[in-house]
Structures are given as structure tokens and as C-alpha cells.
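Have a close read of this protein, sequence plus C-alpha cells, and explain what the C-alpha cells say about the fold. Thanks in advance:
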Amino acid sequence: MTTDSVAMTGANASTLQAQPAHASAMARHISEDGCQLVLEAESLAQGQRVSFALEGGCVRATVRWIVQDRAGVAFDAPLSAAQQALMVGSSRALQRLDLYAA
């Protein structure tokens, strides 16, 4: 099983980096509608809104479930095939995803 992760990149990254990160996570099981997050610390709550930078824009999502160090999020808008490829491609670098309160 592979771990798909994503790092903050692009113009929105500098905007979001000015705010303190709420949590750090690795993204797995990425689809156009959402993904599973493996959290570095249990710092999210069900129903919480989060966002992260992805090259070409900001992705906003809602936490739908939490089990131990895992959380499922639903994206506000479906990810394009290109955005999904960016997230999956980032996994090779094993970088983390910084989440921000949205």
C-alpha cells in the first residue's frame, strides 16, 4: 500500500504559510471527492473545515470522520485529474500536507 502525500506549493502556499498550520498529515487514497489523512497529531474534529495549498489553487474540505490517527475529508469541489496527479506525484517525495482552518 502506498502513501500519497502532498506539499504546499504555488502562489497560495505563501499566503497560507503566513498563518499557523493547524495540523500536518499525509494524504492517502486520493479521489476526486476526498481522501484519507494520516495525522501527525490528533488535532482535527469531525465537521471541521480545513484547507491546503495545491499548485494552482487552494483546496477546501470538511472532516467527515476520525479514527485514531486517521481522518476522512470530503473536498468542497471535485479535484481534477491533474490535481489528483499532483497529489499522487508528491507522494514520491514523502512530503507532508499542512492543514489550515478554513
Remarks:
- The radius of gyration is 12 Å.
- The CA atoms of residues 38 and 70 lie 5 Å apart.
- The first strand starts at residue 23 and ends at 28.
